[in-house]
Structures are given as structure tokens and as C-alpha cells.
Write a structure and sequence with these properties.
CATH architecture of the largest domain: Alpha-Beta Complex
Shape: globular
Oligomer: single chain
Structural class: alpha/beta
Strand content: 15-25%
Bound molecules: NADP nicotinamide-adenine-dinucleotide phosphate
Helix content: 25-40%
């Protein structure tokens, strides 16, 4: 007999651009290939407030948002072998982690190594997905830049001597880009950020940090160690201004990977733009996602990839509203906001 409760608390977005409401809802049971996870840490992402404010992506309401989380497997569906009841796992689902229990595909769950807390595991899960897709997923529509990942044969340090620019190096995405770029051997690794984050980004692998308020083309021209061609740029901010300045400094034949779904003006055929869909659950990324998750535990265990700093918001699911407001107002620097759904009153 299962120990799992039949009901739980969840934070609902009740209608398109509507209100939030914490309510009681059934706990669903895992089907074949799925696991049911008791969520211990749920991470907040800018995507969540954008869905609420702009009414994008979701077509059916009420809905439960949130993507990136960590917890303990409490039930497994038929045929699941990679994780078992009692395992601690981290995962990212398209939505539905602003609740106390959720379902995930077992093959898209990575076991949490003992050197990571639930909070850290939740914080890194979504960034790891977005960044690995952007850099290493195959070059197909809604895929990535097709680079060789560091876990593949010949992938470690494969891009030694190739420069990369990371716009928004202190963001959750940006911190993960810097770390994966280091594993891939990119050099120099140049990032833009507020000056207060210089030391942090250098500790992750950035060789140069440019003040985000500086004129980027001028600042780049003063870097004597920079080879003339910037062939790879990862825009982890994705605003029209960051995209266009990134596109402008990108070398002919280069690749801009961007998180922003904003059309770039004056696009040229000789420059490639990869617009990121940072989810493993879309059919084009699914197989790649299974590959990433099968390597993520080891990368975290070895310290090759570290989580960004975490701020835990007290109050469980109810704290998400204030947290999303801080993200909306850009009052969060270089850290992930996390809640503990089990604390919900
Ligand atoms: N397309 C997708 O599939 C996908 C997936 C995930 C995320 N995203 C998007 O990616 C973006 C980043 O997400 P996140 O979770 O990493 O955000 P985040 O951690 O909340 O980002 C906050 C950070 O962004 C930095 N920043 C903001 N504007 C900047 C600018 N103009 N120049 C340089 N740095 C800037 C700030 O750096 P400082 O503190 O140094 O000032 C701050 O630390 C969001 O817009 C999100 O919606 C898209």
C-alpha cells in the first residue's frame, strides 16, 4: 500500500493573465516510464512570471507552473529501472513543479550526488538543460549549435583556443554556460556582468568580465588577448538590445545562441542564430535530454559543474508570488530563488 497521500497543495494560475491560488488537488499516479516525486525544492525562473504576465505558451487553465526541481522518488511506474523509490533526483519538466508532488519521465531524472543539497540540485537542473541544449544539441530546428559535448569522446577541451562571449554571465543560465564552455576548452571566455560579480565569474572559468553597462564593441576592442573572430556568442539575457549587440560583434560564419525569442533585425545569411528551447520534453530534444541526464550526476559529483548560489524563500508555495515579483523587477543577482513546497501552510 502506498504511503503517498491522495491529495496535496499546489499553486494554481487560475486563468490566462489571472490570479494565483494555493489549492488542494489530487496526487497523480505514475504511468509506465514515469516516476512520482515528492518535491523538496522548487526553483523559480523568469519564464514563470512571463507566462503569467503575457499569457504565453499555456492554453489550458487553471494550470500549475514551474519547471526546475528536486525531490525524492516515492513511486515508480512500470518498466522504470534507472531510479527507485527512495532515490533523490533532480529534473526539469515543462511545467507543474509549483506543487508538493509531480510526475516526471524517469529517463529525464538525474540522481542527486551527495555533495549537492536539494536546493542546489533544483537550481542547476533547468540551467543545465538550457545550456546543454544550446551548445551541444544537434543542429536541427529547435535544437542547438551541434558542438561536441564534454562527456563525448574527444569533447573535453575540444574547442581550445576558440573564443566565446557570454552575455549575462551572472544569470543562472550564464553561470552554467561559463562552466560548460570551460569544460569544452573555449578560451578566452568573456562574460558581461555587473562589476560586483567579477570574482564569481572568474572563479567559474571566465577569463575576462566586461561591465554590462559598457559599450560592448569598444570594450572587446581593448582585449588584446582576443582573437579577431568571435565565432560563438551565448546571449543568456535574450532582450532585443543584448541580441542585436551580440549579433553585431559576431564574426562572419559565427553562431549566436540566444534565450530570447525575439526576431533579430537585418539578419545575414552568413551568421547563424540558434533560438533556444531549453526543455528536454519537446520531441526534437528528448533523446538528447536522456543523454544529458545520464551524465549530469557525474559532472556535479566531480565538481565540473556547480550550482549557482541559492536563496530559500520561507513560506512554501505562497512565497512564489513575491519571488516572481523580484525576478520581474530584476532584483535578483547571480542566484536562484527556491521554495520548499512541503512547508506550505
Ligand atoms: N528560451 C528558453 O528556453 C529559456 C530557458 C531558460 C531561461 N530563459 C530566459 O533566459 C533568461 C535568463 O534566465 P535566468 O534564469 O538565467 O535568469 P536570472 O538568473 O534571473 O538572471 C538574472 C541575471 O541577469 C543578468 N542580466 C540581466 N540583464 C543583463 C544585461 N543586460 N547584461 C548582462 N547581464 C544581465 C543580471 O546580471 P548582474 O547581476 O551581473 O547584473 C542578473 O544576475 C531569462 O530571460 C529567461 O526567461 C529562456
Amino acid at each position: 500500500m502506498s504511503q503517498t497521500p491522495s491529495e496535496q497543495k499546489a499553486l494554481f494560475l487560475v486563468a490566462k493573465k489571472g490570479d494565483w491560488k494555493v489549492d488542494v488537488t489530487p496526487v497523480l499516479r505514475p504511468k509506465a516510464g514515469e516516476v512520482l516525486i515528492r518535491i523538496e525544492a522548487a526553483a523559480l525562473s523568469p519564464f514563470d512570471w512571463k507566462v503569467k504576465d503575457f499569457g504565453i505558451v499555456i492554453t489550458e487553465y487553471p494550470t500549475i507552473l514551474g519547471c526546475d526541481s528536486a525531490g525524492t522518488v516515492v513511486e515508480v511506474g512500470e518498466g522504470v529501472t534507472n531510479v527507485a523509490v527512495g532515490d533523490n533526483g533532480e529534473f526539469t519538466v515543462p511545467r507543474a513543479i509549483f506543487q508538493q508532488y509531480t510526475l516526471a519521465s524517469a529517463d529525464l531524472v538525474a540522481k542527486i550526488p551527495s555533495n549537492l543539497t536539494f536546493d542546489e540540485a533544483a537550481a542547476i537542473s533547468g540551467s543545465a538543460a538550457s545550456v546543454t541544449i544550446g551548445l551541444y544539441a544537434p543542429k536541427i530546428p529547435m535544437g542547438g549549435a551541434g558542438l561536441t559535448p564534454p562527456w563525448a569522446q574527444g569533447g573535453r577541451n575540444k574547442y581550445t583556443g576558440v573564443p566565446i562571449l557570454v552575455i549575462g554571465g551572472a544569470s543562472s543560465i550564464g553561470q552554467a554556460v561559463i562552466q560548460f564552455a570551460k569544460l569544452s576548452g573555449f578560451s578566452p571566455i568573456i562574460a558581461t556582468a555587473s562589476p560586483a560579480n567579477n570574482d564569481l565569474l572568474k572563479s567559474l572559468g571566465a577569463t575576462h568580465v566586461i561591465d554590462r553597462s559598457a559599450d560592448l564593441p569598444s570594450a572587446l576592442s581593448t582585449l588584446t588577448s582576443l582573437p579577431t573572430a568571435l565565432r560563438y556568442i551565448f546571449d543568456a539575457v535574450g532582450q532585443p538590445d543584448t541580441q542585436s549587440v551580440a549579433y553585431g560583434v559576431l564574426a562572419s560564419g559565427g553562431t549566436l545562441i540566444t534565450v530570447g525569442h525575439v526576431p533579430i533585425k537585418n539578419i545575414m545569411v552568413e551568421k547563424e542564430v540558434v533560438v533556444l528551447w531549453g526543455v528536454f520534453y519537446i520531441p526534437t530534444n528528448r533523446r538528447f535530454g536522456v543523454e544529458v541526464m545520464s551524465h549530469l550526476t557525474e559532472l556535479l559529483e566531480n565538481g565540473d559543474i556547480k550550482s549557482n548560489a541559492v536563496e530559500v524563500l520561507p513560506g512554501g508555495l505562497s512565497a512564489i508570488l513575491d519571488g516572481l515579483d523580484r525576478l520581474r523587477k530584476q532584483n535578483v543577482s547571480a542566484k536562484k530563488l527556491v521554495v520548499h513546497p512541503q512547508e506550505t501552510a
